[in-house]
Specification:
Elements: E1 4-13, E2 16-21, E3 51-59, E4 63-73, E5 81-85, E6 116-118, E7 127-128, E8 134-136, E9 139-142, E10 146-151, E11 165-172
Length: about 170
C-alpha cells in the first residue's frame, strides 16, 4: 500500500473545531475552508482570517519526518505579507494580526513544521515533539497545526491578488 498525503483545515471555535479536506489554501475575510477569494475579499489595510492547516499521511511507511513548508512561487503584491508558524495549538480563527513570522520563500535548510508526539482524531490539544518530530508507521499521523495569515496595508492594490504556491517536503522511510 502506498503512502497518501493530503491537507486539512481546522475551522470553527476552539472548543469544537471542524476538519475539512482542502482543495485550496485561499485567504479571505471568512473562517472557512476552500473559499473563493472573490466571495470573501480582504479590504486593503485588513487581514485575512487565520488559517490552521495540517498535513496528514496514511499508508505503508516506516517513518515520516523532516517536514519543511514554504512559499514556492508567486510574488507578493505591494503591502502584502503572508505569515506562517509551523507549530501552534488550534485557536478560533480571527482577522487579528497573529504576529507570526513571514513565510519563508525558499526551501528551509531544517524542518520548520512540527509533528506532535501525541494526538487523537478530533482532539483540540496537540503536544509538540520539539523542532521536527517523527510519525512512526504504518498507519497515519499529521503535523501540528500550521497557522497562516495574509496581511495587507492601505497601499495594497484592490481586487484579487496573484496566485501563490506553497510547497511541503518531508522524508519518508
Amino acid at each position: 500500500m502506498a503512502t497518501t498525503f493530503w491537507w486539512r483545515e481546522l475551522n470553527g471555535s476552539s472548543g469544537s473545531n471542524t476538519e475539512t479536506t482542502l482543495t485550496n489554501i485561499n485567504f479571505g475575510n471568512s473562517n472557512s475552508a476552500n473559499l473563493t477569494p472573490a466571495s470573501y475579499p480582504i479590504a486593503a489595510g485588513n487581514n485575512s482570517y487565520t488559517k490552521y492547516v495540517i498535513g496528514i499521511w496514511s499508508g505503508d511507511f516506516t517513518q515520516i519526518n523532516n517536514v519543511k513548508f514554504w512559499k514556492a512561487s508567486g510574488s507578493l503584491v505591494t503591502g502584502e505579507t503572508i505569515q506562517m508558524t509551523g507549530s501552534i495549538e488550534f485557536a478560533t480563527p480571527s482577522a487579528t494580526d497573529a504576529g507570526d513570522p513571514a513565510v519563508v520563500t525558499a526551501q528551509p535548510a531544517v524542518a520548520n513544521v512540527n509533528i506532535p508526539w501525541w494526538q487523537y482524531e478530533g482532539a483540540t490539544a496537540w503536544f509538540a515533539a520539539g523542532p521536527g518530530g517523527v510519525i512512526n508507521g504504518p498507519g497515519s499521523g499529521s503535523t501540528m497545526p500550521m497557522r497562516l495569515q495574509m496581511l495587507t496595508t492601505a497601499s495594497s492594490p484592490a481586487g484579487p491578488v496573484n496566485t501563490k504556491t506553497f510547497a511541503i517536503t518531508y522524508d519518508q522511510q
